[in-house]
Amino acid sequence: MNSEAPSKIVLIYHRLEMGGIETLIVRAANSFAKKGHEVIIFARSGVLESALDENIQVINFDRYNEIIQRHYKLAKNAVLVSFDPLSYMVMQRIQLKIHLLTRGTSRGHAGIFHPRTLFWDGDPAIVKFTVKLVFFLSSPKSFFFMSESVKLSSEIGLGVKTSLSNPIIKLPIASDVQQQWAPRAKMPMKIVSVGRIVPFKSYNRQIPKIMAELRLLGIKAHWDVWGDGTDLDEVSSEIQKYDVADSVKLRGNLDYKDLSNVILDSDLFVGMGTAALEASILGVPTICCIDQERENCYGFLFDAPSDSIGERSDKGNIKSILQTIMSYVNTPIDERILIGKKCRIAALSKSGGSDYNQLLEAPTWPGSVFRDTLSIFLSSPYLFAVDSRRSRSIFKFLRRVLS
Fold first, then answer.
1. How many domains does the chain have?
2. pLDDT (tens digit per residue) in 212-232
3. For every residue of 162-212, which 3-state class applies, written as one string?
4. N or C: which end of the chain has fewer CB within 10 A?
């Protein structure tokens, strides 16, 4: 397929709330629409819908079976891109219906964007087993990894003895964005974090304590935390515990169109994942936190291993978030500019530029009739369970308790 020629593209995920994968979907969809592609998104409604090009069609749903039963024809002769194993299972069923009922063709694959996507903490054993089984039944080109570090972590978690042959597609970030950040010449220092407030981003839980320690050291700072998630109540409790409500503000969800302005109006960004890349691309000094680390980080983004934007790696040096912030406070203005430039260079090297065409290089379905049929059969109980609101609540509760 010539990815430059106008074609139909279907993107599948379970929500359009603020998050790294979700903003990737928005950027990719808008990029495809501008190139003349017909773009359709299957997803639950969320705040990011307002950031989509007006020509993009969004099909909202409550239960996955709705899109499988009612809207599968929209994916006929399309390239489908799903963004986790669950949406991949949905994609398989859409492709099966297209194949059997319309004699149309489709191509599709799914992305793995987090080291534990294939074995999330808190998921029941049967769910982890089903996800792994679906992954191993798929052809190597049916799943791609965001980076080598995510791929390596997945190999370790899956217990495979040889390297997986699945392709790497780097997380595309708009590399044509110019460096815009300039240091603020006023105090108190303004720190910003943006992203889901969830257990694996556990640095959020440490923010109130860090701010209390900065205050004891005589350092004046404010920390705005943008986002929502299952850890919101815990972070709020920590704010009260350390009596820092005047300096740590939980700002809630951030409209994606305002992201750049919020980040640029800060002295320092602290976070991981896509948000850290987007901040660094703008030239904002960015501390790169680490998956499931409360107190530690890699230092700045350019200190992190070359293939990591917060994923665990045995290549990076571990530093204290508090000590890194204190060091930055004592850094002269001209050196802060240099730190921002180095973060931007690191972000450009870690991202896939602004070309999303690799996402269209998906295999034709079915690859293996036997394996794909077996995958659909074995994953049916899981998909049936997550279509239940009660089951979804149980999964969320287990992840929160066991993560």
1. 2
2. 999 999 999 999 999 998 899
3. CCCCCCECCCCCCCCCCCCCCCCCCCCEEEEEECCCCCCCCHHHHHHHHHH
4. N
Q: Helices in 176-320 by DSSP H: which ranges?
A: 203-216, 232-241, 259-264, 273-281
Quote the strand ranges of 267-308, DSSP E.
268-271, 286-289, 296-300
* Helix (H) or strand (E) run with residue 33 in it: helix 20-34
Query: What order of strands is seen across the sheet that includes strand 248-252?
Result: 248-252, 221-226, 189-194, 268-271, 286-289, 296-300, 319-320
Pairing assessment for the beta strands 189-194 and 221-226 based on DSSP bridges: parallel
264 and 345 together in one domain:
yes
In 272-365 the beta strands, taken as DSSP E runs, fall at: 286-289, 296-300, 319-320
Range of the domain at 253: 189-350
Q: Is the same domain home to 345 and 372?
A: no
Tokens describing residue 9: 């593209």
Q: Which of 51, 104, 108 is nearest to 83 (CA)?
A: 108
pLDDT band at 1 (very low <50, low <70, confident <90, very high): very low
Residue 175 burial class via C-beta count within 10 angstroms: exposed 0-12, middle 13-18, buried 19 and up: middle
Rounded CA-CA distance 190/136 in Å is: 46
Residues 83, 338 contacting (CB under 8 angstroms): no
* In-domain check, residue 263: yes
Do 203 and 157 share a structural domain? no
> Residue 305 sits in a domain of what CATH number?
3.40.50.2000
Are 143 and 16 contained in the same domain? Answer: yes
N residues, the chain? 403
State the Cα–Cα distance between residues 320 and 309, nearest whole angstrom.
Answer: 17
- Which phi and psi angles does 296 have, rounded to 5°? -115, 160
Residue that finishes a domain, picked among 312, 335, 350? 350
What one-letter code names the amino acid at 202? S
Q: Is residue 181 in some structural domain?
A: no
Tell me the whole-structure pTM to 2 decimals.
0.88
Report if residue 94 sits inside a domain: yes
Q: Is residue 180 part of a domain?
A: no
Block residue for tokens 């640095």: 203
300: CB partners within 8 A, 6+ apart: 285, 286, 287, 288, 324, 339, 342, 343, 346
Instruction: State the residue for tokens 């599709």.
Output: 108
